[in-house]
Amino acid sequence: MAAAKYSALLIAGPTASGKSALALRVAEKLGGILINADSIQVYRDLRILSARPSAAEEQRAPHRLFGAIDGAVNFSVGLWLEAARNILEETRQAGALPIFVGGTGLYFKALTQGLSDIPAVPDDVRANLRARTEGLAAAELHAELSARDPLMAARLRPSDPQRLLRALEVLEATGRSLASFQSQRGPPVLDPAATRAIFLSPERAALNLRIDERFEAMLASGAWEEVEALRRRCLDPALPLMRAHGVPHLIAHLEGKIPQDEAIRLGKRDTRAYARRQFTFARHQLPEFAWAAASEAEALALA
């Protein structure tokens, strides 16, 4: 078994780019432990729709933080970083190579650049805010945040209720803008100089085709049943899992609100849009990552 020339390997990239398959091949060759860096694959509810590694794939190399969290939990980047830090220490004590793989750019940024020290929001503050804003559209949440915290509102998309609620929670709990905390970062968990960081960068047209084909394959392989089981849980629609790509539209169809073909079209559209945002985030927020085509990424990881 070959030895790595770095202390950790980071593999990022847009959805459907082949990150998981690449990471698994490298783990088998270098004796690595795969650590999930995807904010939806961390949940246990949607193995198929989140493209989580299969049980057979998990037998080929150790996997950590895949399907580990219940969908009712709002698993923040801070909670993920704490879990990743613990797993990283266990991996090093075992003499194995930690391989972080996933599509959530904010997780990688926290690993290599540090995380803002944001105070925990008390449960009663969170519950009161959620009760007050229940039923409000994302645009209405953005309007409230704009009135109360225009600086943070300018940083967030008006269509992102999860982050809008987070900004309002911090404002209510501390009296300060989330932006003021984001400017103060703690030390990174990993030293970028001692890691190898790769961003898979497939050609866009081919990636879009792959996204559409994979979405259809997921539906044919049991994703409808997964989403129906999730729907029956009646979870807060603002939770991360409930906003996974395709989930809102597939649920809307299951509840008789939109036709099936429209739900599928919207699910594919949202996934392609997410891939574009992943490219943009990496370009501006992850300067330490080397961009690589699929044909050259494995050689780069093993060099």
TrEMBL record:
Alphabetical list of InterPro entries matching this protein: Dimethylallyltransferase (IPR039657), IPT (IPR018022), P-loop_NTPase (IPR027417)
Keywords for the protein's UniProt record, in alphabetical order: ATP-binding, Magnesium, Nucleotide-binding, Transferase, tRNA processing
GO molecular function: ATP binding; tRNA dimethylallyltransferase activity
Keyword Nucleotide-binding: yes
EC identifiers of the protein: 2.5.1.75
Biological process, per Gene Ontology: tRNA modification
NCBIfam families cross-referenced by the UniProt entry: miaA
Subunit structure: Monomer.
Function (record text): Catalyzes the transfer of a dimethylallyl group onto the adenine at position 37 in tRNAs that read codons beginning with uridine, leading to the formation of N6-(dimethylallyl)adenosine (i(6)A).
Name of the protein this chain belongs to: tRNA dimethylallyltransferase
Gene: miaA
